[in-house]
Amino acid sequence: MKKISIINGPNLNLIGQREIEIYGKDTFINYFNKIKKIFSNIELSYYQSNCEGKIIDCLHKIGFCIDGILLNAGAYTHTSIGIADAIKSITTPVIEIHISNIFARESFRTKSFLSPVCKGTIFGFGLKTYELGILSFSI
After folding, report:
1. One of 23, 31, 47, 130 is an active-site residue; which one?
2. CATH code for the domain of 129
3. pLDDT tens digits for 93-118?
4. Comparing C-alpha atoms, which of 14, 121, 27 is closest to residue 70?
């Protein structure tokens, strides 16, 4: 059975409450429970932190023993060389995920320190972006 982990960064714990026009009304935990049923043949795990160092620690912990990581680093995407270095340091492939179309938002969101070290990037399909990320590990 494949093992895939979803890691969400800062403020993504507020999905369903913040900027509903961008992130939707469903909480991430509700959504995660739905995708676990959709992908019952995959062992899915989930971690969220608002702290950069904890995200790095999580990448280090799981980055050598699972099949894939979907990382939505939130605002750290545009600021964190530390997370980029952590991705470079592990062997598990990482897909960069964004719920919104980052190119249709503020200009600073178009710069990603993570994209160059990730296997790929998927963005702009709402929460379904995570499902596309899971499917990408089958390609």
Report:
1. 23
2. 3.40.50.9100
3. 999 999 988 886 778 778 899 999 99
4. 121
Reply yes or no on whether 98 is catalytic. Answer: yes
CB 20 within 8 A of CB 6: no
> Is residue 60 flagged as an active site residue?
no
Closest to 82 measured CA to CA, from 98, 59, 50, 105:
59
Q: How many residues does the chain have?
A: 139
Domain with 88 in it: 2-136
Q: Give the mean pLDDT of the chain.
A: 93
Decide: pTM greater than 0.90.
Answer: yes
Dist. CA 97–CA 26, nearest whole Å = 17
* Catalytic option among 31, 47, 76, 98: 98
Number of domains forming the structure of the chain: 1
Q: Would you give the distance in Å from CA 128 to the centre of its chain? A: 12
